[in-house]
Design brief:
Blueprint: H1 2-32, H2 37-73, H3 78-103, H4 108-138, H5 147-151
Helix pairs in contact: 1-2, 1-4, 2-3, 3-4
Length: 155
């Protein structure tokens, strides 16, 4: 039982990352499918709200619960955690730009440019995070850890 749980934390993180990739793709599709501008804008607001909320929730959970736990176990990873938190701030900034573009009715091209930026930073962040901390997560055996507390609402 403990071995299954220990290995599951790394898998949980990868699963959340994939769900966020999928949500970004749905958001991108809502921009590129076209149709009436009003309908596309309304759909994009819905998908953006969902995606942006999920991504922010994931990062908030990591910052407040997961990263302190990782640092408790591995203080030597402080520079890694600092970089991951810096990425979170950059992604939050990029999401604010996307939300502003959607709210102001910017062109499809402009909205896609924002999504491209978010995707590039998000993907680099996810790969780095998985490379640097999956080993620590796979070693977690503490009882009572909640995946949503550690990884956010998509866990």
């Amino acid at each position: 039982m403990t071995e299954q749980r220990a290995q599951a934390w790394g898998r949980e993180l990868r699963t959340v990352h994939q769900r966020l990739r999928d949500a970004l793709e749905v958001t991108r599709e809502s921009v590129t499918e076209g149709g009436r501008a009003e309908s596309v804008s309304r759909d994009l607001r819905l998908f953006c709200l969902g995606f942006c909320t999920a991504l922010n929730g994931h990062h908030t959970s990591e910052d407040s619960a997961l990263f302190p736990l990782v640092l408790e176990l591995r203080p030597d990873l402080a520079p890694v955690i600092a970089k991951l938190k810096q990425d979170h701030s950059m992604i939050e900034y990029l999401i604010a730009g996307l939300e502003k573009a959607v709210d102001s009715g910017d062109s499809t091209e402009e909205q896609l440019r924002h999504l491209d930026g978010i995707e590039a930073v998000m993907e680099t962040h996810f790969r780095y995070e998985e490379k640097q901390i999956i080993g620590v997560l796979d070693g977690l055996t503490a009882e009572g850890l909640d995946k949503r507390t550690l990884l956010g609402p998509l866990a």
